[in-house]
Every structure is written in C-alpha cells, then in structure tokens.
Amino acid sequence: MRVGILTAGGDCPGLNAVIRAAARRLMSEGHEPVGLLRGYRGLAEPELRMELDDRAVSGILHLGGTIVSTSSFDPFMEPQGVERVLAAQQSHPLDAIIGIGGEHTQWITARLHEQLGLPVVGVPKTIDNDVVGTDYTFGFDTAVQVATDAIDRLHTTAQSHDRVMIVEVMGRNSGWIALYSGIAGGADGILVPEIDTTVEELVATIERRHNKGKNFSIIVVAEGAKLAFEGQEAEQILASEETDEYGYVRLGGIGAILGQELEKRTGFETRITVLGHVQRGGTPTATDRVLATRYGIKAADMVMAGEFGRMAALVDNKITSIPLTDVDGVKPIDFEILEEAKVFFG
C-alpha cells in the first residue's frame, strides 16, 4: 500500500515522533509511506509530496515541528478543493491517508471519509488537550512543562518584589494547560474558559494571602477564559477582530486587563507574562515522545487492518480507536481536578 501521512493545523511537539513511528511500522510490513506536505494541501496537490524512507525518518524522534510541514488548508473551504482532492486521487492514488491534527483536522478527516469515501485514519494532536474521545493528546505534556517552568521562575521574582504575577497560557476554549501547569507550579488562582471566576474572587484570594503574611501571588489564566465581574456578564477578550484560517477569533489579552484590575483593586504591584507560541515549539518531553510513538504505530496498524473512518485514541492508558464521527466539539477540563486545586488558593 501507498500511505499518505500529513500534519495539519498548528505545529505541536511530537509530530515527528508520530510520522517516524507510522512510517517505520508501515515499512516493516512492506508498505510505502508518503509525506503529504503542508497538511491537506498535499492531498490536493500531488507535487507537494515526499518519500518517507528510512533516511527521511531517521533522527527525528526528538525534533520539534514537522518534517512534512503543516497548514490550515481545508478542501471543503477552498475553491474547487474537493475536486482537486478527487483529481489528485485519480492521477496519484493513495491507498490510505493518516491525518494528524486537532479537532478541526479530525472534522476534515471525517468528512473526507463520509462524503468522498476516502480511506482515512486520524491521530489526535494539540497542546490544548481538547480533542473529544481521547484522554490525552501528544503535545499537551510538553506545553504544560514549558508553562510550569515559567511559573517556577516567576515565583522567585514575585517573592523578591512582593508582586502579583499573572501568567497567560494558551488553550483556546479549553483550560487544560492552565489547570495542569497551575497545579504543578503552585498557582494561587487558576482561570479557565469552562467556568467563570470573578475579579472579586481573585481580589479576595490575594488579600487573604497577604493577611497571612504571604506578600506575593501567582495567577494562571487561560487565553480563552472570560473576564468576569460580580453582577455583570462575563466577556471573552480578543487579541483582534480578525479570524484565523479556520474562522476562529484570535484570543489573548485577558492577562493584561486582569492585571490592571487586580492592581487597581488590591494596590499590589502586578506583572503579566504571556507565554504564547513558546508552548508549541521545541523538543517534546519523554511522555509526549512515547505517546506520539504509540499513536503512530496504532495508526499504521489501523491502516493495515482497514479500520478507516476512525481515530486513534488513548483510553485508560490503552491505545484504541473510535469513530471519527464521535470526535465532535471541545473536551472540557476535569472539574474534579479544578476543585482539588482550589485547596491551595489563598
């Protein structure tokens, strides 16, 4: 079989580990893996392809980014996109396609199977850990580690200067990164998109800490969390009115606005750190390398078994698969973990 492998959407630590594992598994059984460059654009444009032989996938396990590059190309939104995909399948046919990406990529993958009948398999990736149907996505652990390291470093500055430190992390409409890095970094408050925490609650937490003689506080806020005041409707803060390639609004800026409010209401000097894309780049952690490798092997096995229209998933620490049609919406945080974190607030 000739099997296309692509990475779509944003980059994520561990992509190369999946490519390596899937390619090597396929080659071990005599199949031919092909890299589809620039996401699903490589499926529509046959000239955007590369052979994934032993040399191509050697030494890439630890590398960040993706050797096949990525893009947000959506054949269902591009002019003549579907027609170009079908034409490419006729002129340069693939026996199967492995699509590695987040929830929107899996949505595209599902439609390619349902509407066009293409033999596809999905692999969930995103630092946000918000893909429905899997316990964890690769890239999440690395992002949490980057955020935790930053919080650790900010602790010393906060203590030295008696400051309130606000750390804004990524995650879009999911609070997984904020929740896990906040717990691991010993945060005194965590704001997530799934539940509104008012400015008044944070003020009370900070003042309670200072009354106990703790003259600094660390607040971790997800970029998609809403700014909430008692008696008012919560508002999501946008970085700009422009949308990205998927039509999603650009989030960001809640840290700065929240910092102004906390400093004004408490009188304590407040500083803001926005981690941004540093959470998505660089070397994957050992945990992400292992998870990505397991996903890659499973995806290759699914292709060889003809299990199309499904996505590899981690459930109770076992790699299984679920129908792509079940991958719908955004997976919320575990609220029990958030309640456990509140033990340390104030």
TrEMBL record:
Residues 2-302 form the Phosphofructokinase domain. Mg(2+) binds at E103. Homodimer or homotetramer. It comes from Svornostia abyssi. Its main location: cytoplasm. Belongs to the phosphofructokinase type A (PFKA) family. Mixed-substrate PFK group III subfamily. Catalyzes the phosphorylation of D-fructose 6-phosphate to fructose 1,6-bisphosphate, the first committing step of glycolysis. The active site is at D128 (proton acceptor). It is found in: Cytoplasm. Its EC number is 2.7.1.-. This is 6-phosphofructokinase. Its cofactor is Mg(2+). Keywords: Cytoplasm, Glycolysis, Kinase, Magnesium, Metal-binding, Transferase. Substrate binds at T126, I127, D128, R163, M170, G171, R172, E223, R271, H277, V278, Q279, R280. InterPro entries: ATP_PFK, ATP_PFK_prok-type, Phosphofructokinase_CS, Phosphofructokinase_dom, Phosphofructokinase_III, PKF_sf. The keyword RNA-binding does not apply. Pathway: Carbohydrate degradation; glycolysis; D-glyceraldehyde 3-phosphate and glycerone phosphate from D-glucose: step 3/4. The keyword Protein biosynthesis does not apply. It comes from the Bacteria. It holds the Pfam family PFK.
